[in-house]
Amino acid sequence: MHKCRQIISFLIFCCLALSGAAQGNEAVFLNRRFSFSEEGESLDRVLERISELAGINFSYDPTLVDTEQSIDANYVNKSLQFILSDLLGPEFTFQELGNQIVIRLEESSFDLVPDSEEYQIFSGLIMDREFNEPIPYASVSILDKAFGTITNTEGKFELKIPPKYQHEMIVVSCLGYQRELLDSTLLPAENLLITLNPINIRLKEIKVRAIKPMWVMEQMVDHIPLNYPKQSRLMTAFYREVLTQDDAYINVSEAVLEVLKAPYNIPFRDDRIRFIKGRKSADVEAFQWVDFKMQGGPYYTNQLDVVKTMDSFLDQTYWTDYKYEAGSMVDYLGRPTYVIYFSPNGKKDFLTYEGKLFIDQENFALVHAEFSLSKYGMRMARETLIRKKPRGFFVRALGLHYQVSYRKTGELWYLNSAQSSASFRVRNREDNVNSVFHSVSDLLITKHEPTRLRRFPKEEQLNSSDIFTEIISDYDPEFWGSYNIIQPTDDLRKAIRALGVESGNNQTQ
C-alpha cells in the first residue's frame, strides 16, 4: 500500500560502523585522470562524453557557457580539473556535490543571495501575554503576502523584508492565539517583544457532541479543489536537520531549497526539489560507536504536505480503518477551527497513524496537522526504517512525530512549514553500547510565486536516495544573506559557535 509508506520513508537511516578513513571533503572526481580526444565536436557533446567517462553530472548556467562552440582537444592522462579549466577557461570554478560538479563563474559565487543592505531586518521574541512564556512556531509574515518566517522553540525570530514589502503590515499569529497586526514603519529593528493573547472558543458540550467528525472530514476532502492551488508554485524554503546523540549535538545541516510544488488537483505529478545553497557544521562532537546518516531528508519532509500526498488518514478508502472524534473548537489565525482526533480502530496490516487535524470552520481547509505512528504502526515500521546497521547492533525506533501547517494567502492555502522528529535507541551488548539518537528536520516556506516551470534539470534535483549531509559542506557567519530562516535556539547557536567552522558556500545555478 504505497500511500501508507510515503510519510515515514525519509526516516531510513544508514547506521554504519565508524571506519578509520578520513571523512573530509576532498575532491574525488576532479583529481581523476582521463585520456581522450575530440575533433570538431560541440562543447555540449564534449561535456556529455566526460560525463559518461567519469560517471558524473554537470550543473551550470547555460547563459554563461557557450555550449555550441566547436572543440578540438587531445588529453593524455590529465586530471578532470585541468580538462575543465582548459575547455572553459580560468574564470570558471568547479565544485563537487556528491556525483555532481557545479560549474560557475568565480565572481558569481554569491549571485543567488539577495543584497541584504536593501532589506529591513526585524528580530525579537514572541510571548504568551497571560503566562509570560515564549510561543514556538508562531508565524511572522507580511499581511496577505506569501512571505514570512516562524519563531524557533524559544519564541525568537528574525524577519528580513525586501523593499517592495517595507510599507506593508506585519501579522503575527499562532494556533490558539489572537493574531496581532503591526505597522512595520513604527517598529524598532531589534529586541522586539510581541505578546499574543490566548483565545479559546468554548462551545456548550451539546454543540461539541453535535459536530459530526465524518461530515467535517467529507467536507474537507470535497473542498480541496477550492482551497489549494491548481497551478504550480515555485517556493523558496529553508531546511534544517539537527542530530543529537544522548542530548549532545552531533551534526547541524541547513540549506535554502527551491520546491516546485505541483498542483493539488494533479495527484500523480510529484513535487520537485533542488538545492540552492547550504552549510553544515563539522561534527559538534564526534559520533560514538556508530555514524548515523539520514537518507532523503528534504524530499520526504516535503511529503508531509498530507493534503498533497493524501495519506491513509485523509484518504476516504481507509476511513473505515480509523476512528474520528470531534474535540473543542480553537482559534487558528483568527479563524474558528474544528479539531478532529483520529486513531486506528485496531491492528492493521499497513502503517497507521494517530493525531489531530485542524480544519477551518468556514471553508473546511486542513490548516494544521499533528500526528505520529500508532503503536501498531511503530511495530511495523521498525524493520523498514533502518537501511543498514553494523553486525551485532540492535536499533529500535522510540518515537516518530510529525506536524505540518498551511498559511492562507488570498483565497487559497499554501504549505507553510513541516517538521519531523524521530528517536532511535542503539545497543550493542558486546561493546557495552547503549545510546539514543534524536533527529529533527524542519522545512519552512519563506516565499512562493506562480510559475510555468514543470521540472528542474534532473541533475539538480534532490531525491529520496540523497543523503543531505553529504551534499553540503562548510560554514560562513554571513552565509544566509537576506534569506529568511528559522533562528537557531541558544543551545544550538552555542554548539555551532563551538565548532571552529570553515567558510564557503554551495550553489547550483
TrEMBL record:
It holds the Pfam family CarbopepD_reg_2. The keyword Protease applies. It comes from the Bacteria. Residues 1-24 form the signal peptide. Keywords: Carboxypeptidase, Hydrolase, Protease, Signal. GO terms for molecular function: carboxypeptidase activity. SUPFAM superfamilies: Carboxypeptidase regulatory domain-like. This is Carboxypeptidase-like protein. It comes from Mangrovibacterium diazotrophicum.
